[in-house]
C-alpha cells in the first residue's frame, strides 16, 4: 500500500462520514458493506485530490487484470499515452476538486465480485446542481488478496477496459 493511500485511509478513518458510522445492519452482506466502504473512501471529500489513480496509487485502486490492461494500452501507444488516459477514469475528469458523492448503491456483492453505482457532481461555484450536472458511474469490483479493487468503470455507456483495448 502506498504512503499516500495509507495516509488517506488514516484521514478517512477519522472522517465523520467514514465506515465506522455506517449502519452495518442495513447491508445485506459483509461484502456489500466492505464495497460500500471502499467506494465511499474513493469518493470522499479530498481523497481523489490526493491520489494518482493512473500513477503511483493505481495498484491500490485497480485489479491486477485492470493494471495489465493499462500496461498493454501504454505499450501499444506512442510515448505510452493512450486516449483512455485523457481523463481520470474514477471521476471522468481532469481535476477532481469539488467532487461530491451524491449516492452510492451496491446492488450486487458476493465474496469476490461486486457492482457499485455512484452518482456524483463537482458542486463548483457552491451552487445547487441538478441531474444534468450529475455523473452516473458503475464500478465493477473484484476482491484480491483480501482487498477490494476496481476491475472496470462504466460511465456514459463506455467501459474503461473496452477503451483500453482500443488502439
Condensed summary:
It is built from six helices and five strands.
Could you walk me through the main structural features you see in this protein, from its secondary elements to its overall organization?
The protein is an alpha+beta fold and 167 residues long. It has a single domain, classed as Nuclear Transport Factor 2, Chain: A (Roll), CATH 3.10.450. 31% of the residues lie in helices and 24% in strands. It contains six helices and five strands, in the order αααααβββββα.
List keywords for this structure.
single chain; Nuclear Transport Factor 2, Chain: A; 6 helices; 31% helix; 24% strand; disordered N terminus; DUF3828 domain-containing protein; DUF3828
CATH architecture: Roll
How would you classify the helix and strand content by structural class?
alpha+beta
Question: What is the count of DSSP helices, taking H or I runs of 4+ residues?
Answer: 6
- Number of DSSP E strands: 5
What is the rounded distance between the termini? 31 Å
Q: What's the structural blueprint in terms of helices and strands?
A:
Layout: H1 3-13, H2 30-42, H3 47-50, H4 58-61, H5 64-76, E1 100-109, E2 113-121, E3 135-144, E4 147-155, E5 158-159, H6 160-165
Protein name: DUF3828 domain-containing protein
Domain DUF3828: 72-153
